[in-house]
Amino acid sequence: MSSDVGSLLLYVTYVLQILIFIRVILSWLPMGQNPVSEFVFRVTEPLLAPLRRVLPRFGMMDLSPMILLIIILVVQQAIASAF
To answer: Which residues span the domain enclosing 51?
Structure first.
């Protein structure tokens, strides 16, 4: 049972990593509103917004996705070692 929970949590963190990478790539492309980009932004924005409020801006660069990916990696390591 506990390994199932650990596997599910790891799966969720992997999906979040992929969505964050997709969001970064979408931010580089001149795309209009489409269902895929709206879904990615709706899922990732609640995680990125608090980081943006805390992190200082570095010109045009938004470092919050990189920081969130590091946090997710730490969480994955903690999950893997706990289960």
So the answer is: 2-82
